[in-house]
């Protein structure tokens, strides 16, 4: 027997209706504008070129689209209010999911740096930037999203979410108002924060402790300082060495002159 319909709430298919699709398009435009704002907020010395910025943000776009359509699909699987189910999915993605994404990025970054897969380091695309590096990083990030959504889907199998659905949106009388809150207002606020944080995770770190060059070798700041010190000190060392050599040769010449016998010519 099918579960009874809630007195208020979105109907089946409301998320993919004309009004729902319009809200989703507006959400995408407003949410990704925060990434544009973040770029202009970066220091000029560290501001990414447009091509690098596109490579970084497009990974988030692909991951966000995957999560969004996965949530829409999961929300229409049952006879429950799809709007409240979408909101629960979204809240879990923004809390537990954010932690899983952070963990996934850290683990993947450690593996690729340990294996010295230079082009798979998030934010590193080579010089000049290579599209192959961007594709590889997109695949890695999408795998992290699949892992995150799988864990969230398993969490949703825990009983008790129905009561939370009634608490979240049960007091809203208008289905369209509920759709606006679920598909635009709440996602815009949370996505703006998530995009900002995730972009900081996957962009190139200009102030990282170790710099990984294109050949896969790691150069530490201490090594760079040592090399610079050697370059700066080498002329002085050569000068001091030449002076000491001249002093030694002068002493040797003096001792030889003192030891050389003198001859007197008598006429």
Verbal overview:
- Helix 2 (50-75) runs parallel beside helix 5.
- This protein is 69% helix and 1% strand.
- It has 267 residues and is an all-alpha fold.
- It has a two-stranded antiparallel sheet with strand order 1-2.
- It contains 8 helices and 2 strands.
Notable characteristics:
1% strand, 2 strands, two-stranded antiparallel ribbon, 267 residues, disordered N terminus, mainly alpha
Ranges where pLDDT stays below 50 over 5 or more residues in a row are 1-7, 207-229, 231-240, 261-267
Into which percentage range does the β-strand content fall?
A: under 5%
Strand order of the largest sheet: 1-2
- Can you give the helix content as a percent range? 55-70%
Largest sheet composition: 2 strands, antiparallel
Structure class = mainly alpha
Average of per-residue pLDDT values: 76
Distance between the termini: 144 Å
Roughly how many Å is the radius of gyration?
Answer: 33 Å
Order of helices and strands: HHHHHHHEEH
Principal-axes geometry comes out as: globular
Strand count = 2
Number of helices: 8
Topology, element by element:
Blueprint: H1 18-41, H2 50-75, H3 82-94, H4 96-114, H5 131-155, H6 161-169, H7 175-202, E1 211-212, E2 218-219, H8 221-259
Antiparallel strand pairs: 1-2
Helix pairs in contact: 1-7, 2-3, 2-5, 3-4, 3-6, 3-7, 4-5, 4-7
């Amino acid at each position: 027997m099918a579960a009874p319909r809630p007195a208020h709430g979105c109907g089946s298919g409301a998320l993919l209706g004309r009004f729902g699709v319009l809200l989703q398009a507006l959400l995408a435009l407003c949410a990704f504008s925060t990434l544009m704002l973040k770029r202009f907020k970066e220091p000029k010395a560290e501001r990414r070129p447009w091509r690098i910025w596109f490579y970084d943000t497009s990974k988030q776009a692909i991951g966000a689209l995957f999560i969004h359509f996965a949530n829409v699909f999961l929300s229409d699987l049952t006879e429950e209010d799809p709007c409240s189910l979408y909101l629960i999915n979204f809240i879990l993605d923004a809390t537990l999911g954010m932690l899983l994404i952070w963990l996934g990025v850290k683990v993947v970054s450690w593996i690729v740096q340990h294996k010295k897969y230079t082009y798979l380091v998030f934010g590193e695309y080579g010089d000049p930037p290579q599209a192959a590096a961007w594709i590889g990083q997109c695949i890695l990030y999408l795998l992290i999203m699949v892992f995150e959504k799988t864990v969230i889907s398993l969490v949703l199998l825990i009983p008790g979410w129905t009561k939370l659905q009634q608490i979240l949106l049960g007091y809203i009388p208008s289905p369209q108002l509920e759709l606006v809150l679920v598909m635009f207002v709440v996602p815009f606020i949370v996505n703006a924060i998530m995009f900002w944080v995730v972009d900081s995770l996957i962009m190139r770190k200009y102030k990282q402790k170790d710099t990984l060059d294109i050949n896969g070798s790691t150069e530490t700041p201490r090594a760079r300082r040592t090399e610079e010190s050697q370059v700066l000190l080498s002329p002085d060392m050569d000068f001091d060495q030449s002076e000491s050599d001249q002093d030694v040769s002068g002493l040797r010449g003096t001792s030889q002159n003192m030891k050389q016998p003198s001859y007197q010519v008598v006429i």
